[in-house]
Design brief:
It is built from 15 helices and no strands. The chain is mainly alpha-helical. Helix 5 (69-82) runs antiparallel to helix 6 (87-100) and helix 7 (103-116) runs antiparallel to helix 8. Mean pLDDT is 91; it is low at 4-9.
Length: 258
């Protein structure tokens, strides 16, 4: 039967041999022959949804059965042109672009999915992956910072984003933004009632306000937070004395000294 269908296929007169061989090759798991038949089928299919599905099937066949990822990419791209919002095509192409190091294409697809998605958890996964690729693979720190900041717009307590931005802003000596991120870090610990490291974080932030930003008002606010937690902490008291002395606030200085 296969020989007869193959002979009919060579004549190219009708679709029936193509469909018959497609069914046989699928049942017998003859993936290479099945791919050729589906490629031939492209000559007959010109309706948008059917053509999209055929390119998707070919993409999956080359991707998962024949391990010809270049051909898989070509067919997934064609399917995406026909249906730009198809989730399976988007995810499969993302996977292949990332695996092959096509990072610009990968980032573009991630942005496309973020624009289509209402799922904040999925957006956070994509944005974190984009940030890590921009920082670690493309060495584009400004864009990496943008991605980490976008994460904080969705989740202001995101630990990886806070950690990354602290590191990057220290590297850039961007003390204004560094102070903002440290404020977020402190607020996150306060919400979680994790006060063990709060005093040391407050001291670090106060030193940035004093030494780098010369903002004694903010330094006083953050030091008072630390003082309320540990009233006997000598470093906190010394820094408060310094702030009150340099700002000529002798009334508050006297209270501290007492």
């Amino acid at each position: 039967a296969v020989s007869a269908y193959q002979a009919a296929l060579k004549l190219g007169l009708e679709m029936q041999p193509v469909l018959a061989l497609e069914e046989i090759y699928t049942k017998e798991k003859r993936w290479s022959e099945l791919a050729k038949i589906k490629e031939t089928k492209l000559n007959w299919v010109n309706i948008g949804p059917q053509l999209k599905n055929l390119h998707l099937e070919l993409g999956q066949l080359y991707h998962h059965r024949l391990y010809d990822e270049r051909k898989a990419i070509l067919h997934y791209e064609r399917a995406l042109e026909l249906d730009p919002q198809h989730p399976v095509v988007l995810h499969n192409l993302q996977s292949l672009y990332k695996e092959w190091g096509y990072f610009d294409q990968y980032l573009n697809l991630c942005e496309k999915e973020i624009g289509l998605s209402d799922d904040n958890a999925r957006k956070l996964v994509l944005l974190q992956d984009m940030a890590e690729i921009l920082e670690q693979r493309l060495f584009c720190m400004p864009k990496a910072i943008q991605m980490w900041e976008r994460i904080l717009q969705i989740d202001a307590s995101h630990p990886q984003a806070i950690e990354a931005l602290l590191r990057l802003y220290i590297q850039n000596r961007d003390f204004v933004r560094l102070a903002r991120i440290q404020q977020l870090q402190i607020a996150t610990l306060e919400r979680k009632q994790q006060t063990g490291s709060l005093v040391s974080l407050c001291l670090n932030l106060a030193k940035i306000y004093i030494q780098e930003l010369q903002d004694h008002t903010e330094a006083e606010t953050i030091l008072n937070k630390a003082w309320n937690l540990e009233p006997q902490n000598t470093e906190v008291i010394q820094l408060l004395e310094h702030v009150y002395a340099i700002s000529y606030d002798f009334e508050k200085l006297q209270k501290i000294l007492l």
